[in-house]
Design brief:
Elements (H helix, E strand, L loop, with lengths): L1 H13 L5 E6 L8 E5 L10 H11 L1 E2 L6 H11 L1 E5 L10 E6 L5 E7 L1
Antiparallel strand pairs: 1-2, 1-4, 2-3, 5-6
Length: 114
């Protein structure tokens, strides 16, 4: 989870006012591989990574009702994922696209929804 902590620390460094981040598994489906991390109470000085490593298991809120930290951590370690800034706004939309990149590096859109 060191890579995830690094990504979350990088987000906070780039956007100090960030309140939350979305953590997504590379192979999640319909949002079930997503979780939200809250930076509330994050230290404003000193290294952030130790705090993140300690808080990740407690603070991730999973989209899938039956997801738990240990299986999510294993899936993230196995398939990878990303951390993105959660945009705080009263009205939210969540458009999505599925793409495929073939072995030659040529990409194509498979589906979209929003």
């Amino acid at each position: 989870m060191s890579d995830l902590a690094d990504a979350l620390a990088e987000l906070k460094a780039k956007v100090p006012e960030i309140k939350r981040a979305v953590v997504k598994l590379n192979e999640g489906f319909s949002g079930d591989g997503n979780a939200v991390f809250s930076y509330e109470g994050a230290p404003s000085k000193g290294p952030l990574k130790p705090w993140l490593l300690q808080e990740l298991p407690k603070r991730l809120r999973f989209e899938a009702a039956d997801e738990r930290w240990e299986p999510f951590q294993a899936k993230f370690s196995e398939m990878g994922g990303i951390a993105e800034r959660f945009i705080e706004h009263e009205t939210k939309r969540s458009p999505s696209v599925q793409c495929r990149i073939d072995p030659l590096g040529i990409g194509g859109v498979i589906s979209t929804h929003g």
